[in-house]
User: Fold these one by one.
Assistant:
Number 1:
Amino acid sequence: QVNLVESGGGLVQAGGSLRLSCAASGRIDRINHMGWYRQAPGKQRESVASITSGGSTVYAESVKGRFTISTDNAKNTVYLQMNSLKPEDTAVYYCAAWRLSTYWGQGTQVTVSS
């Protein structure tokens, strides 16, 4: 089992920044990707950004140039630095980790006010 614990969500004004963190513990050998998803009210969960164990990254078009995903392998932690936040970024953000199976965090609320 892989356990994921997120932190860093909150309320911010449009144009502001937040950094999300997700610490992984347990069977780390069962994952080689980590990433962030988000789900806004009434919408499907969508991928925001992901990173491989080798450092390759993928971003959703809507966040390119504004969000940065990174990892601290020594701490088994993935970060999502979110800049220039927009009201449409408001959602519950979920950390995910996977290789053959996908593991999910509990989610953290991000609210961007206009």
Number 2:
Amino acid sequence: VRLVESGGGLVQPGGSLKLSCAASGFRFSWYDMSWYRRAPGKERELVATIGSAGGPPTYVDSVKGRFTISRDNVKDTVYLQMNSLRPEDTAVYYCKPNFGHYWGQGTQVTVSP
């Protein structure tokens, strides 16, 4: 299993970023996929999940209405569109399938003036 996150960066409050996670080594379309984040000094937090067939996603309350998770089962890629970013969104973001303990290297998102 390989997970490669990308798309992070430095953005001002109110800005947007779109994260991507390219997956390989497993049947991507069979599994729910999630985005997690770990902010400095905090536990890793589940941010969003999308079903294997792209069914209704779920979000942590703090990102509802601002973040959108999506997937492309042809490209074996899951995305996280992040709008109206806030400083408290600063974290390393990771994607994960809903099996095993597989993690990528993550991508850093920093929201700062």
Number 3:
Amino acid sequence: QVQLVESGGGLVQAGGSLRLSCAASGRTFSNYNMGWFRQAPGKEREFVARISWSGSSTAYTDSVKGRFTISRDNAKNTVYLQMSSLKPEDTAVYYCAATARSWYLMRPEDLQHYNYWGQGTQVTVSS
């Protein structure tokens, strides 16, 4: 079992920055590839970014490329999402998730392959 707790959300003006953190506990954190997803009101949960267990591979959805950066610190059992140049359309609840599935055996947007989820943190970007 892996427990995930997100933090760092809040209200920010368009063009601003936030850094989300996701602290993991339980099983060995470095065994898991990690992902960030978001869900806006009335919309389905969507993929934002993912990072491999070692941190050597990352992937992003097109709408955040060049603005968001995912990283991890296995010594601290934490994954981060640095968000810059935020836009109102980035407003959503952001979730981190962990998967034991091989990086190459799933598409980034395959939510069903993520075994563990956090409770989410709200990000609101005002125009």
